[in-house]
Amino acid sequence: MIKSGFRRKMVGVAIGAVVLFFGAFAARSYNMHRFHVEKQTRFMMDTFVTMVVVGPADIGSAAIKAAFERMQEVSDKFNNRDPKGLIYAFNHYGTPITDSEILFVAEKALDISRQTDGAFDITVEPLVELWGFYGDNPALPIDAAIKACLQHIGYQHLIIEKGVLTKDDPAIRIDMGGIAKGYCISQAAAVLREKGITSALIDAGGDVYALGRRGQQLWKVGIRSPRGNDILGFMEVENLAVMGSGDYERFFEHNGKRYHHIFDPRTGYPVEGISGATLLFADPMLADAWNTAVFVLGKQKGRAVVETLPGMEVVIITDEDDLMVTSGLANALQINTESNLSIARRP
Ligand code: ADP
Ligand code: MG
Questions:
Q1: Taking the CA atoms of the chain, what radius of gyration do you get in angstroms?
Q2: Which is the closest atom of ligand 1 to the Cα of 45?
Q3: How much distance in Å is there from the Cα of 275 to the middle of ligand 1?
Q4: Cβ–Cβ < 8 Å for 44, 78
Q5: For ligand 1, atom 2, which residue shows the shortest CA distance?
């Protein structure tokens, strides 16, 4: 375990992963007659999403536009609060889902539920609702209400058969918020690649995907402190998702205790032990889901499971401000200095 030695007071909301030196490289790295750096930010999925695309000027801006459109389309589809949406109909009327994209992501979610013994579970929706995290004023529910909620939570109630998703308990409702953002990012990256882009960065509010390289070099992604804006360290990456989440994203405090939006599906309460986790993996969708899973599994178990998964690494900041990393990162994560790095994965 690496002791970071940092201890800071909370000074505000921060994001998990942060892109360093966002577009300041173009003139040095590229022949400006042929290459162009296009950067656009849009508000999407409850956060600011920035895409930086490096490529010939004539394809860059069209590629970014198409990638944003795709991202919007996917995030709309996975929005369980939209009364016209497929997930809403499944949750409230039991309408089976046949949409291949939702089924694909649901299958992956169920795989991870099985691998984590239910720590990751998209049927947490009733808890997210009960605790008020869909609105602006989340609050501590009474314990009896939480216990009642648990009666209708459990991924085992979801059935995928012959291309149809159904449930065996009408009260089961799903929330794919722990995996959908990663899927959206993977789809945006796929669009960029289809359009011929070989160098790009997607930053969805601290969830980052680095496509290809930053010119001759790798992309530099920093890890931000969950309490404040300090950069704890950074890594150089290519073709890798760096997904960050923490107890600072959506939370409230009650009697000096912090309650956030990642739940232990067995207790019905927000998980404790980790204040921030940043997970690295080639596939953004799986990186997102495993990032949430690590939170629920806790620092020891979370790190141990990631250690067994090839190509996956995690940085955990515990609620005691200790920094824990998987062995693959021992040398790759540069703590608070800007010297020698790197972790890289090819697609
Ligand atoms: P974000 O990065 O968008 O804040 P996270 O990846 O941290 O999202 O996941 C948090 C979301 O995951 C919650 O808002 C909720 O929708 C969902 N969630 C909460 N607890 C669990 C759980 N145990 N398993 C799967 N999904 C969960
Ligand atoms: Mg997640």
A1: 20
A2: 3
A3: 14
A4: no
A5: 245
Mean pLDDT, the chain, integer: 86
Same domain, 330 and 259: yes
Does the beta carbon of 122 sit less than 6 angstroms from any atom of ligand 1?
yes
CATH number, domain at 260? 3.10.520.10
Whole-angstrom distance, CA of residue 325 vs CA of residue 1: 7
pLDDT (tens digit per residue) in 81-104: 999 999 999 999 999 999 999 999
pTM of the model: 0.89
213 and 245 inside one domain: yes
Per-residue model confidence as pLDDT tens digits over 191-233: 999 999 999 999 998 899 999 998 888 999 988 777 766 778 8
Same domain, yes or no, for 266 and 313?
yes
- Smallest-distance ligand from the CA of 17: 1
Task: Report whether residue 260 contacts ligand 1, using a CB cutoff of 6 Å.
Answer: no
Interval between CA 207 and ligand 1 midpoint (Å): 13
Buried b / exposed e along 110-131 (16+ C-beta atoms within 10 A): bebbeebebbbbbbbbbbbbbb
For residue 33, pLDDT over 60 is answered with: no
Whether residue 78 has its Cβ less than 6 Å from ligand 1: no
**Among residues 147, 178, 209, which one ends one of the domains?**
178
Q: Which domain holds residue 127?
A: 77-178
Q: Is 192 a member of any domain?
A: no
Residue ID of nearest Cα to ligand 1 atom 15:
177
Residues 192 and 103: their CA atoms lie apart, in Å, by 23
Inter-CA distances, 344 with 229, 292, 311, 329, 338, Å? 25, 22, 10, 11, 17
Please report which confidence band the pLDDT of residue 281 belongs to, taking 50, 70 and 90 as the band edges: very high
Residue 60 lies in a domain: no
220 lines ligand 1 (CB under 6 A): no
Calpha distance 212→115 (Å, rounded): 30
Last residue within a domain, chosen from 178, 213, 245: 178
Q: Is the minimum distance from the CB of 120 to ligand 1 under 6 angstroms?
A: yes
Within 8 A by CB and 6+ apart from 334, the residues are 233, 234, 235, 340, 341
